[in-house]
Every structure is written in structure tokens, then in C-alpha cells.
Write a structure and sequence with these properties.
81% helix, binds protoporphyrin IX containing FE, mainly alpha, single chain, 198 residues
């Protein structure tokens, strides 16, 4: 990664994300305290940082196929670290919903089996993001796990944001449009590339 024009590469992306999102939460809790409202704000904020990091990893190879430039090269090269940063962000999401549980004396959040399944995917994908563990499960299993996990996250984010469009279109419509555009990009990128090459 030497000689790159981008200052943040590899593990520094994960460190930078952990620090930035950590500071964001500290600011929220300093300003609003640690009551239910503050915990809900922290949950929403971390869901959005996770979504942005997820999207970067989700579209990296499609963007690179269609627009080979220095930025898309950086995205693709650092896709693994963007995914790991999403895992860090979602760990903060878990800290925030544990905080909500504490602030409401166990009244909220309720049991969320689909959310828990998301964390199972996240955990499995994180531990297999290293050369040794990836080699241990094999290329085929790795592809199935990471493809299924990425599409599960896409569904979870699109559903969570999509159902809230009626509540606040100004916040949730752009997020939902971004997610739908990302999926369309992934679907059309290989076809467009084939046409360009062929
Ligand atoms: C990988 C799995 C998960 C994903 C992708 C995810 C994503 C999201 C998203 C996108 C939102 C909406 C944020 C917004 O309104 O801007 C959200 C809200 C929320 N999540 Fe998660 N989440 C996951 C797992 C969980 C789990 C396991 C729990 C706890 C049981 C949880 C608790 C909450 C709560 C309580 C809110 C609503 C906060 C509020 O608006 O007051 N999430 N999550």
C-alpha cells in the first residue's frame, strides 16, 4: 500500500472508524446524558455509520469495474478493512442497544431474532476475514458465507430504513435510494463490463 495518494489505508481505516464513531458516541452521551433518548440516538447514529461503511464494501468491485480510477482502486483494495470497520460500527450499535436495555431497566429493546441472526453473520464474516481462517473454511464456503451475509445486511438496512420513509422522508428516502442504487449497480456492472469488453 506504499506510494498511495490516500493517507488512510488498511488497518488505519479500521482504527480511524473506531475512533471517529467512538468520539461521535461520546459527544452524544456528553450532550444528552445516558438516558433512553440518548441511547436511541446512539443506536440510530451507529446504524447509519454501519450502513455507509457497508455500502462502500458492497459496491467496491462494481464501481471498480465501471469506473477504474484512483478512488475506486482504493475502495476495492480496502474493501476488507471497510467491512471490518462496519463490524466495529455494529459493535457500537450493540453497545448502544445494551445501553438502551440498561436505561429502560430491561423494557426495551425486545428480543429481535432477525437482528441476532445479523450479528451471527457479522461474527462469522469477521473471523473469516483473515487469510488463515479464510483458507481454513475454503474458498467455496467463504464465498457462500460472505455473499449471503452481504445480501442479508442489504435486506436488513433496506427494510429498516424503507419502512421509516413515511415517518421522515428527508432522512430515510436518500438512505433507501442509496441502498437500492447499490443493488442495481451490483446487478448491472458485470453485464455492462461484458458489453464493453465484448
Ligand atoms: C445486523 C443486525 C442489525 C442491523 C443491520 C440493524 C440495523 C438497524 C437500522 C438500519 C436501524 C434504523 C436506524 C434509524 O432509524 O436510522 C436500527 C434501529 C434499531 N436497532 Fe438495529 N440492527 C441490527 C441488530 C439489532 C439488534 C440485535 C438489536 C437489539 C435487540 C437492535 C436494536 C435496535 C433498536 C432498538 C433500533 C431503534 C432505535 C430507535 O429508533 O429508537 N438492532 N437498527
Amino acid at each position: 500500500m506504499k506510494g498511495s495518494k490516500f493517507a488512510v489505508e488498511g488497518w488505519s481505516i479500521v482504527g480511524f472508524s473506531a475512533l471517529t464513531i467512538g468520539i461521535m458516541l461520546a459527544v452524544i452521551w456528553l450532550i444528552y446524558g445516558v438516558d433512553e433518548t440518548a441511547m436511541r440516538l446512539a443506536i440510530r447514529a451507529t446504524a447509519r455509520t454501519s450502513c455507509i461503511l457497508f455500502l462502500c464494501a458492497f459496491v467496491a468491485s462494481s464501481l471498480r469495474r465501471l469506473w477504474p480510477n484512483i478512488f475506486t482502486q482504493w475502495l476495492l483494495k480496502n474493501r476488507r478493512y471497510l467491512g471490518l470497520s462496519m463490524a466495529v460500527s455494529h459493535t457500537y450499535h450493540a453497545i448502544a442497544w445494551t445501553g438502551l436495555w440498561w436505561a429502560t431497566s430491561g423494557a426495551s429493546p425486545g428480543f429481535d431474532p432477525l437482528g441476532i441472526l445479523g450479528y451471527v453473520f457479522l461474527f462469522a464474516m469477521t473471523v473469516t476475514s483473515f487469510e488463515r481462517s479464510a483458507a481454513w473454511i475454503g474458498q467455496r464456503a467463504w464465498k457462500i458465507l460472505h455473499n449471503a451475509g452481504m445480501h442479508y445486511f442489504w435486506l436488513a438496512f433496506t427494510f429498516e430504513f424503507g419502512i421509516k420513509i413515511v415517518k421522515s422522508a428527508i432522512v430515510y428516502l436518500p438512505l433507501t435510494v442509496l441502498l437500492v442504487a447499490a443493488m442495481m449497480l451490483r446487478l448491472v456492472a458485470p453485464r455492462i463490463q461484458r458489453k464493453l469488453v465484448g
